[in-house]
Design brief:
Length: 380
């Protein structure tokens, strides 16, 4: 009998993290590490149920409180970035689910790769900021990067069916978010509450805003470019309101393969953890007859300027992904705090890309420097 797969979940109290915990009974797994930013009540509950070797709270005060709460157990309680890196690389995991949000995922993901762990990648910012470095390290260490993002999981599943034939084009589907059909002018008056109400996917606040600006699709284009080693010009973004076709791939003969399903992250999470096996999943089944019709549109790059910003960053490579992402994270933070308007998110990202000189980003330090410069530009 095969040994149980040992899994570390970085960001286990977030949207992807809790859904990962939810599918654990379907797979043969042992949890070795769990982490949170500061949602320690939920982390404590998960830790008591799953008995990992170690846990981490990024926030120092939260970690102290967590340590007190778990004093009657033998679970090690760590804190901060060092703790997050230890959970990724030193917890004895076979595979690390990177479900933290934002740039904070980069260093632990790299540490896990260096330690030879496979990655179930839910943290797209890691590839956006440092895709070249991450994919090279993964190749050198022989570790698998298994995508959890629904679109990239769909592409991955189509690639499995291609028996080594190269993909010629990716059709990256986008729900269009809550503001599909609005003009650039109408987008000026969007409120925080409207932006936080996504029609199809139930997600965390940051990615929900990214979906509303369509920056999420721009980040995913960069993610797909690195994962599948494909030119950005060969990735076509298609707005698909129903979120049933999770993405598609075109081959040399013109055949298009797609993966379909209802919008539920549990399937792509589970597939990343059971690959190449498929096992029953809790997510509801798709009924095409009940769905009725599927619609597809070209994206409106004028109403959603984030798309062109991301395409430009993808083509230029170097540190542009890190600048794009850092500026976007900072601008989304300002928008969520009510300090800037919706349209200003993309404006601030554009301004950062214009103002910060291009660098090659040959090392993680370069990437971190580009990220800091972008945030400082947006906040300053
Ligand atoms: Mg996605």
């Amino acid at each position: 009998m095969k040994a149980m797969k040992k899994i570390a979940i970085l960001g286990s109290t977030g949207s992807i993290g809790t859904q990962t915990v939810d599918i654990l009974p379907s797979i043969d797994a042992e949890i070795v590490a769990l982490t949170t930013n500061k949602r320690i009540s939920l982390l404590e509950e998960q830790a008591r149920a799953l008995r990992p070797k170690m846990v981490c709270a990024m926030d120092e005060a939260a970690a102290r409180e967590l340590k007190t709460r778990l004093a009657d157990t033998d679970i090690r309680v760590l804190s901060g970035m060092d703790g997050l890196i230890a959970c990724a690389a030193e917890s004895g995991a076979d595979i690390v689910v990177t479900a933290v949000v934002g740039m904070v995922g980069l260093l632990p993901t790299m540490a896990a790769i260096e330690a030879g762990k496979d990655i179930a990648l839910a943290n797209k910012e890691t590839l956006v900021c440092a895709g070249g470095l991450v994919m090279r390290a993964a190749r050198e260490k022989g570790v698998k990067i298994l995508p959890v993002d629904s679109e990239h999981s769909a592409i991955f599943q189509c690639v499995q069916a291609a028996q080594g034939n190269p993909i010629e084009k990716i059709l990256l589907t986008a729900s269009g978010g809550p503001f599909f059909g609005r003009t650039a002018g109408e987008m000026r008056h969007v409120t925080r509450e409207q932006a936080l109400a996504h029609p199809n996917w139930n997600m965390g606040a940051k990615i929900t805003i990214d979906s509303a600006t369509m920056m999420n699709k721009g980040l995913e284009l960069i993610e797909a470019m690195w994962l599948y080693d494909i030119a950005p010009a060969d990735i076509e973004i298609v707005v698909h309101r129903e979120s049933i076709v999770h993405s598609a791939v075109e081959f040399a003969d013109g055949a298009v393969l797609a993966q379909l399903g209802i919008p539920d992250m549990r399937l792509p999470i589970q597939y990343a953890l059971t690959y190449p096996a498929r096992v029953p999943c809790k997510a509801p089944r798709l009924s095409l007859a009940q769905t009725g019709k599927l619609t597809f549109f070209e994206p409106d790059c004028e109403a959603f300027p984030a798309l062109n910003l991301a395409k430009r960053a993808a083509e230029q490579k170097g540190d542009r992904g890190a600048v794009l992402n850092g500026a976007n994270e900072a601008a989304v933070g300002l928008f969520l705090d009510g300090k800037i308007g919706f349209a200003e998110i993309a404006e601030r990202v554009a301004s950062a890309l214009d103002a910060i000189p291009f660098q090659k980003a040959a090392s993680l330090d370069d990437v971190l420097a580009a990220d800091r410069a972008a945030r400082a530009h947006v906040l300053g």
